[in-house]
Amino acid sequence: MDNVQESIDSVNNGVYYPVVLTTSLEYIRESSLQSNCVKTYVNKASSFIISLREGDVDSEERATIEYQIYKVGNDVKMSRVQSLGRFNQPLDFKWYGVLEELDGRVNSALKDVGFELPKVVVEFGGQSVESETKFIKNSINDKSYLNWVSTFLNDVLPEF
Question: Comparing C-alpha atoms, which of 41, 23, 49 is closest to residue 157?
């Protein structure tokens, strides 16, 4: 995460700060500020979200980016599946070079550091549920996607 979250200097468009969302509260805040549904992605094992902020790490001028983790054969891959602005609006041209840099960092981290299956601890109503993840083959294409081992977590929706 360290390399991915380093600031990105855009020659003509300033400095951008990628922030990997890691807690439910971060997902809720991003969703509220951006007026999008990213808060519902918190229990999606196959995705992670990066909030890309323009000018300052706390800036409200930002893009919300979803990356998906999948496997083709024995190779783990990550790809950007959506990148949107506030109210799910398309991003303008100034973001394109920064997004390409971020894509490169994400894929470089995968190659340089490797990939460890994520784990989660979910606490709610005085209970705690832990789960690991595993890749499950999709019947439509040749990709395998991450799912929680605990079937409880695959069925539960976050409460907001």
Answer: 41
Beta-bridge partner residues of 71: 76, 144
DSSP-derived 3-state class of residue 22: coil
Amino acid, single-letter form, for residue 119: K
pTM of the model: 0.90
With pLDDT > 70 as the criterion, what percentage of the chain qualifies?
A: 96
DSSP sequence for 81-125: EEEE-GGGPBP-GGGHHHHHHHHHHHHHHHHHH------EEEEET
The dihedral through the CA atoms of 74, 98, 84, 6 has a sign that is positive
Q: Residues 74-84: what's their mean pLDDT? A: 95
Type and span of the H or E element at 5: none
The model's pLDDT over 107-116, given as tens digits with 9 standing for 90+, comes to 998 888 878 8
**Cα pseudo-dihedral 19, 104, 90, 93, rounded to 10:** 110
